[in-house]
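Appendix C reproduces, verbatim, an entry submitted by the partner laboratory led by Prof. M.T., so that reviewers can inspect both the input and the predicted structure.
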Amino acid sequence: MTENLTIKQASDLLKNKELSSKELTELYLKNITEGKELNCYNYVLEESSLSEAVKSDERRASNSLKSDFDGVPIGIKDLFCTKGTLTTASSKILSDFIPTYESTVTQKCKDSGLISLGKLNCDEFAMGSTNKTSYFGPVKNPWKLKDSKADLVPGGSSGGSAAAVAGDLCIASLGTDTGGSIRQPASFTGTVGLKPSYGRVSRWGIVAFASSLDQAGPITKTVDDAAILLDIISGHDNKDSTSSIKEKENYSQNMNSNVKGMKVGVPKEFMSDDLPKSTLKAWDACKDLLKSNGAEIINISLPHTMSALPTYYIIAPAEASSNLARYDGVRYGLREQGENLIDMYEKTRSEGFGDEVKRRILIGTYVLSSGYYDAYYLKAQKVRSLIKDDFNKAFNDVDAILTPSTPSTAFEIANEPNDPVQNYFNDIFTVPVNLAGIPGISIPFSNDEKNLPIGLQLITNSFEEQKLLNIAKNIEETVQYKATPEKWWIT
């Protein structure tokens, strides 16, 4: 009764007084202890989560609940600043940083009565696709290959957020998505990962990677839960100048899974003989499913999306090099001793940043430098505009676009490519969405011959999250994906 609970199910249990918030929180704290081998949490907030659970039970007893989901425990990616609680971005340079303020997203969760179980592991400063760049070590995917005990990557950068949901170490979690960092790990772990439109959710108080691309979103067990969390965290924020003034919608209350008459586009550029047969089979099956449910499948072209990956890996590092310049050892975070100020900067940043972060800072500084700005950064921004135009034209003809979420299923941690460029290809299907600033969702569709989850991605136009969720709900209801990993970490 209490395994793999959704937000809705947990809320009903609390409402019917079949379980108290304290009991529910204790259950998940137990799961976290048993699941330590997965390395999902950088640190667990046992004392504060139990205290908040007791307060939630008191509110329930006095009929003064903050929301219908008051008392439900979730996990928070360690990229959201939380007042009085360590926020490290999984980096050594911030290993002792305790913010004096709360991010808008986590404050909204608190205002709804959601309980934070702890801060979840991620790639350092959200830079990575495998969760191996974390200062706290790699997260292990709860899924295993058929007939193998090898540890698999959970995807990244929100690997801890996705693995914690898949392994039932929290009911749902919050992640961030700069180039696929919610959708790619969701695909690898058989969970639902939603990247909202740029500006739909406030970025204030989130440790910045690439400011024009970063977006917070939920990782959940169901599409309904994704809608619930989006309801909670979305909306205009005066503290974020990029926050949209568009009125927020009541996504969870307006769910409608009818797709009759809808047009779903399939981009020819995403079709490749290099894709695993199981992924192509799932993609084809989903097209047939939508067709049988009343949608029309239309072949479309997104010609410039094949340039999205190099475009992204110019723009994102450029913005990162600027954002990460603030970590110098002067005001907060790690400080190494040096003979002078410049020496202190160099030693602090050399010791505090991991290899992947250093690599991206160097790339970003290079493309912004004199003589190369026009050749690389300016050209990348022009291509970004063309990619956005491709999507705009496509959405004149279709309601949504269907693609695979990733070019493969999860692979072994030990077999991660040594070439960083090969790793960047994990984001080939997700990056265009961030460059265009539009919403995308990854939903689990089936498992491959190795028993690993295959995720499919739906994309809609800017601020059409309701349509996105509705179509995803239609697929979810039809497929009825129920697979969960065996809990091999419990002995």
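The chain has one domain: 1-491. Additional entries are available on request from the coordinating office.
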